[in-house]
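Fill-in record for Aspartate aminotransferase.
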Amino acid sequence: DSVFANLVQAPEDPILGVTVAYNKDPSPVKVNLGVGAYRTEEGKPLVLNVVRQAEQLLVNDRSRVKEYLPITGLADFNKLSSKLIFGSDSPAIRENRVTTVQCLSGTGSLRVGAEFLAKHYHQRVIYIPHPTWGNHPKVFTLAGLSVKTYRYYDPATRGLNFQGLLEDLGSAPSGAIVLLHACAHNPTGVDPTIEQWEQIRQLMRSKALLPFFDSAYQGFASGSLDADAQPVRLFVADGGELLAAQSYAKNMGLYGERVGALSIVCKSADVAAKVESQLKLVIRPMYSNPPIHGASIVATILKDSELYREWTIELKAMADRIISMRHQLFDALRARGTPGDWTHIIKQIGMFTFTGLNTQQVAFMTQEYHIYMTSDGRISMAGLSSRTVPHLADAIHAAVT
Ligand code: PMP
């Protein structure tokens, strides 16, 4: 008998499991709105033109070898990544107060940051928004932090519960870590306004709460890299400390390359150097050092002004297509006279719409219309196209009437 015979079968991941179910469905009209990955109008995955160009440059460079990277990753990549999120003129970077390490996409950056905090920070509690990306509580719990939630979303308005957020952060213990979605909150698509961010900042700094930004969608929310980084930069500008996890999965379409970065902004260059030395001790026994290819693609694009410019254009085109899907879906529901207020579809930001559809309605749409989405009613707008919008609108209409 197997030594593992008494294992119980684990459930599928709630998000990635949607794709597993989708792949099993033989229907020709099936639509996958589960996973947050960009698709073209034709429903195909997209490799950006600039990524193809950068890869070509890398392949043609015969001096490139496959040696190990340092524990902290590709130095150029790290420098350019911190400039991308904090701004090229950031005083924190100029003063050498930022340490940046290349990690395995957004998830790996969150995990390394969390392991570091669990080992070295005086407060073990992290507040995450309710709801949030389903992997957050698992990443932080397994790293050894204790997870609590703060109110974020108001189902009645399908918008921000700003009062609840302020109350919950206001009663958090001094020094607690707070996870903030830098932009395009997943799964709700609801972000604070810049004025609300400023109030959050003041409250958090007054209580010495430590910000941990998760930036998985820079450029995807508004189409502008700078606009989407505004909340993070607001917190850097006051001179205080923070962590930021960056992912290039969405904004450069590098999903499977697993490219990301963890930055820790410190009070002084001296502290930043010590922090980096300790980050290396977290990383070395976990995976030794990060992979070279994806980070080289990113560095090639970020350091070449022409490639960078082309990237911003391609990024804007992806963001614009998503925004146009919001309008098409909203118009299609209005044309059908579907009962309810659907303005949140055009108000929400980023890759996802939090439809407000309940578990039963989602199950109905999957069963009768072969439309796949997470059971909380979140749909990936990036998975929609002009061809599939009418089908989705029919399904929503049938589900709510
Ligand atoms: N944070 C959030 C909020 C996300 O939505 C995602 C991707 N779904 C991630 C982090 C991490 O993604 P990745 O590890 O692929 O960069």
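KEY FINDING: The radius of gyration is 21 Å.
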